[in-house]
Each structure stands twice: as C-alpha cells, then as structure tokens.
C-alpha cells in the first residue's frame, strides 16, 4: 500500500476550499506507486487525483507541474494540475507539498501489442515537440552526474562481474557524452520514465500518461530508448521484440523524424537507458530511503537488458 501520509475526507473539508472544485465527496488511497501518496478524489466538480509528495520539496515541484500544465494546454493527454485561488499548483497538506490533478480514464496495458506500442510512440513524439518551448530548465536528475555519484555507493553490494559491468558501462557512456554525435542529438524536456504502468488505454486507444516526477531535460533519443526498453521486450529475457519495436519507432518517426545523429547514437542510448534503471533499482534495493519502496523493483531485470544491449545490436532506427 503506497499511502505514506494518511488523509481523511474531514482533513480536506477546509483545505479543498482554496480550489474551484466544490466540496470533497470521496477519497480513496491508491495502492500502486512507490514514490508518493496518491488518492482518487471525487468532488462536486468531478474526478481528480490528489498527490502528496514524499520525496520532493516545494522548490523542486514547479518544473514537473508546470510541464504537465504546458503539455495539457498543447493537447497532450496528461494530468492537468488544478491551480488554487492564488494560482499555485503546489500547496501544503499535512506539512508536505501536495497537488490536485485531473484524472485520466482507462487502465495500463501491461501486455502491449504493436498497436499499443505505436500509440505510445506517437504520443512520445508529440510530447517532445510540444515540450520544446517549455521555458523552465531542469536537468535529468537521474542522468550521467547521478550515475557517477551513485555507482560508488552500490559497488560494495555487487559481485565482481557486476561491478565490472557497471564501471565499464559508465566509462563508456561518459566517453560518449563527450562526442559530437551526442552534442548533435535533439534535446529538451523528456518524461524519462514512460513505462507501461505510466500510460493509460481504453481499448487500444491511448488516453494519456502520467508520473512526470522523473522528467528533466535530456536527449529525446534517451526517452525513446527508456520507452522501448520497457514496451518492446520479452519480459523474461529482456530481448527486443521486432514487431513491437518497429511499431513504436515507425510511429515516433512519422511525427518526429529521427536524424543521422539519432541513428548513430541508437545502440549506445539503449544501453544508457538500461543502465539508468539498473542503477536506480540497485540503489533503491541496497540503500532504501524511509517511506519508500515497500516492494523494491528487481534490478536483475535491467542487468539482463543491459547485457543484451551490449552483446546484441538492436534493429536500426527508421531512415
Ligand atoms: N492522473 C491520474 N489519473 C488516473 N490515475 C492516476 C493518475 N495519477 C496516478 N494515477 C494512479 O495512481 C497510481 C500511482 O501513481 P504514480 O504516479 O505511479 O505513483 P508514484 O509516483 O508513487 O510511483 C498509478 O498507477 C495510477 O493507477
Ligand atoms: N519505472 C521505474 C521506477 C519508477 O516507478 P514509477 O511507479 O514511479 O513509474 C522502474 O521500473 O524502475
């Protein structure tokens, strides 16, 4: 149960008055999720999601919530934060930052077919283009700097083979980050965690995506690689599935054509995306923070994916 901060309907009686939402009618804790306390909130005006942020503070949240607002205004189906009477998107609740956002319809598709991967690819490309003129800046906080800082902390827990894989992969990625190819990659605000559980469908139609709390400025190709490494694989082996991969890449390419630099960086970026989640899962498993990760995600899944991407070249990006 991922509700770390308890909230009751009574708690909301006064608090909700600052929003143009009418009275709160029902509140239900959401069991899934590993970072924040989430609730489905029914008010006189409709259905919303209330999030209490357990690990992010007031200064860090405007980037995420303003980005969601920016995207929603450009027609990207993402939760739209509701401003209070002063225009604030983040307000305190029980002393922690909290926000109310619109609720998306549908459910996640955890066994995606090519049709679902194509929908995800289209939305991802539309999102990259729509976010391009977003004025706030924040780096991907789970990027290269974080890898360099975090790897030494998890090293003591690793087997010699895994320690070797981690240090050689970080060195490889660090070298790549200094190349002209890397510098030529298109970049901007990216979701950076567009896994299947963060996207909703009604039937085969994508209805939206949420969980922007790992978003930051990074290369668009990194975001594509993160998405592919979750949507287009055999979940047991981590190997890429050709039909789903083609569907996602072709759909993305139809909206935001891949460049020569993207094509040159593709294999490396698939490895970077695998490394990012291998490392965060290792960190969360071995060095858990308080009020987090009741069920840590399995790092070996991304270790398998990383080894596969190092050993086997993926199909090329469409030209
Ligand atoms: N805007 C939304 N609309 C509908 N459901 C949502 C929305 N935001 C969150 N959820 C639900 O809450 C769950 C947990 O949200 P998530 O953002 O993944 O939490 P966490 O950040 O704690 O990992 C999701 O799996 C989804 O079912
Ligand atoms: N997608 C990441 C962890 C982030 O979890 P989320 O529930 O916030 O999407 C992983 O699988 O390691």
UniProtKB/TrEMBL annotation:
It catalyses: L-homoserine + ATP = O-phospho-L-homoserine + ADP + H(+). Keywords: Amino-acid biosynthesis, ATP-binding, Kinase, Nucleotide-binding, Threonine biosynthesis, Transferase. Coiled coil: none annotated. Residues 27-258 form the Aminoglycoside phosphotransferase domain. InterPro entries: Aminoglycoside_PTrfase (IPR002575), Homoserine_kinase_II (IPR005280), Kinase-like_dom_sf (IPR011009), Pseudomonas-type_ThrB (IPR050249). GO terms for molecular function: homoserine kinase activity. Its EC number is 2.7.1.39. Belongs to the pseudomonas-type ThrB family. This is Homoserine kinase.
């Amino acid at each position: 149960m991922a509700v770390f901060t308890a909230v009751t309907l009574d708690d909301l009686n006064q608090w909700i008055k600052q929003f143009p939402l009418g009275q709160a009618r029902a509140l239900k804790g959401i069991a899934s999720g590993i970072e924040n306390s989430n609730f489905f909130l029914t008010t006189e005006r409709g259905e919303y999601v209330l999030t209490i942020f357990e690990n992010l503070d007031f200064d860090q949240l405007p980037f995420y919530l303003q980005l969601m607002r920016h995207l929603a205004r450009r027609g990207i189906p993402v939760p739209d934060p509701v401003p209070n009477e002063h225009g604030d998107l983040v307000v305190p609740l029980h002393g922690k930052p909290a926000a109310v956002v619109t609720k998306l319809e549908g459910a996640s598709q955890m066994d995606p077919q090519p049709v679902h991967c194509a929908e995800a690819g289209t939305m991802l490309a539309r999102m990259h283009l729509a976010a391009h003129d977003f004025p706030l800046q924040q780096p991907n906080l789970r990027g290269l700097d974080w890898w360099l800082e975090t790897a030494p902390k998890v090293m003591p827990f690793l087997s010699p083979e895994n320690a070797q894989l981690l240090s050689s992969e970080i060195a490889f990625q660090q070298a790549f980050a200094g190349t002209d190819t890397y510098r030529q990659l298109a970049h901007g605000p990216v979701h950076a965690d567009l896994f299947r559980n963060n996207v909703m469908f009604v039937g085969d139609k994508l209805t939206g995506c949420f969980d922007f709390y790992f978003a930051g400025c990074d290369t668009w190709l990194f975001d594509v690689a993160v998405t592919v490494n979750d949507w287009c694989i055999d979940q047991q082996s981590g190997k890429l599935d050709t039909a789903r991969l083609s569907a996602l890449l072709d759909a993305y390419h139809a909206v935001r054509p891949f460049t020569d630099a993207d094509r040159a960086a593709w294999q490396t970026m698939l490895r970077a995306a695998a490394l990012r989640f291998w490392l965060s899962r290792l960190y969360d498993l071995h060095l858990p923070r308080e009020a987090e990760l009741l069920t840590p995600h399995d790092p070996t899944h991304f270790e398998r994916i990383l080894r596969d991407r190092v050993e086997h070249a993926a199909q090329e990006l469409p030209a």
